[in-house]
Amino acid sequence: MGGFYITKPGVMSLLQDQGRFGYQHLGITTGGAMDEHASRWANRLLGNKPNAVVLEVTLGNVALEACADTWIALTGAELGCRINSTPLANWQTHFVRKGDLITMGWAQSGMSGYLAVADGFHAAPEFGSCSTVKREQLGGLTGGALERGDRLAFRSAERERYPLKRSVPPCFIPDYTAELNVRVIAGYQAAQFHPESISSFYASKYKIKAESDRMGFRLQGETIESGITGLLSEGISYGAIQIPADGQPIILLKDRQTLGGYPKLGTVLPLDSFSLSQRKAGETIGFTEIALADAQYLMKRFYTFFSV
Amino acid sequence: MDYSIEVSGVNSLLIRFSDRADPQLITVIGRCCELIKQYLNNCLIDVVPSYTTIMVTYDLLKGEDEMVRNALELAVSQLDSNSVLSSQVRRETVILPVCYDDRFAPDLTLLSDTLALDCDEIIRLHSERVYQVFAVGFSPGFGYLGELDPALRVPRLSTPRTSVPAGSVAIAELNTAVYPQATPGGWWLIGRCPIPMFDKSRADPCLFEVGDQVQFQPITMDEFHCLKGA
Description:
The complex is a heterodimer. Chain A is 14% helix and 31% strand. Chain A is elongated, with a radius of gyration of 20 Å. Chain A contains 4 helices and 20 strands. In chain A, strands 12-19-16-17-14-13-20 form a 7-stranded mixed barrel. Chain A has helices spanning 36-45, 195-203, 270-276, 292-307, and strands at 2-8, 12-16, 54-58, 60-66, 70-78, 82-83, 86-87, 92-96, 101-106, 109-117, 151-154, 180-186, 206-208, 216-220, 234-235, 240-242, 250-252, 259-260, 264-268, 284-289. Chain B is of the alpha+beta class. Chain B folds into 2 domains: 4-86, Gyrase A, domain 2 (2-Layer Sandwich); 94-229, Cyclophilin (Beta Barrel), CATH 2.40.100. In chain B, 27% of the residues lie in helices and 30% in strands. In chain B, the strands form 3 sheets. Chain B has a 7-stranded mixed beta sheet. Chain B has a 4-stranded antiparallel beta sheet with strand order 1-2-4-3, covered by helices on one side. Chain B has a two-stranded antiparallel ribbon with strand order 8-11. In chain B, helix 1 crosses helix 2 (65-78). The mean pLDDT of chain B is 93. Classes of the chains: A alpha+beta, B alpha+beta. The interface between A and B is large, with 43 and 42 residues.
């Protein structure tokens, strides 16, 4: 069995697949790759199964030593990845030889870079998934982020396995520095909010706060008053837009708590939640409404594309 | 049965039965979840019941919005039938041993002063009642059990603890709970349970689900250590 030996683990480097499903009724969150667009492309470039385990590197500063030959794919945040000091193009596959040192600098654009390996990394699934959720100590190698000295196991692959390098067509490579307009599916308590609150939400720009993390992105901007009180805790879906008492929206992402009692005015189109996860603190975003049928069409197209 | 179905995401619907929690409703909700799982078996991702709602997430490539809505409506329509009401109790009551010793109950004395009740009386009121599981969440295996005897109701602590030991038995507002993991917490600690609430190595990692019934059984410190060691 081949592997990468971690010589520099970085700020937060996590093994992720597409998430842990079917256990939210026990309070177990889904977790999963923050940016499915980038993580699914990484697996697709290598012809992996869509749910193969990838390495999600947030903010960068990572070094890995290859203990066997293999192919990798790099997608997501631009981390200035190199093999033995030779720069590697992002959104592309690369052959890695035994003994090579792969290094990643600090994220130049985006937040999370993905490194996939031919056939995916090997890890023991917990509740059907290898996704690491630190808060729940589930998934990954030991339920937490990678540490110096860890070994990420994979089955080695020969150079001949892929005749050519493969790369993502430029039209599918997002610009993480572009201002994001987040599409919202109205729902939950939307009809009970003051109509003026809803219109001011869609008319305003919000800044991403530094306290944002895998659980949720916290926003700062126009205060939204829901006028709703006494809500009992209820299920929270991926991308739910929660309005707590201070009126500053929180968008709940992959490591969200399964239940919450704050009013919600809808959910973000998952494609835009993926893009949001690549935005840095201090950047601004806006919101527009999307019809449910249009949102479903876009997501079906996305999942169909990545399931073949 | 009165209910509404709300959109809770691109592939998610939420059934809302009421705005008020009620022990009878939560049993019905537990039953409704079973029916939903039967009807939508092949396209379900998650079914999350809580107090007065059920959130259903489905696979967009396997289920259409309208088909899922119809299945949810069918499940709810079955709830009025007698067969459901007669099979309300799905499982036996889960008995959780609790040691109420002072060493495990840092808030019991203050609670006794606040409520003007003897500690023994608090323990009696807490352990006599059969509770319903209203929700499981906050952290894996954290069950919101209710409702507490009216004499035991207190607001949350004004300053939450940064870490509550795993197994702590606590009360706040209408609910009681056992903390499955060491987490921050703002509830009053009145005892400790030696059985892990959440254990990923068990066939049933969680001891209960929404709609189940739970009762606490007082035990001594010796019994606690005996059970803890077992």
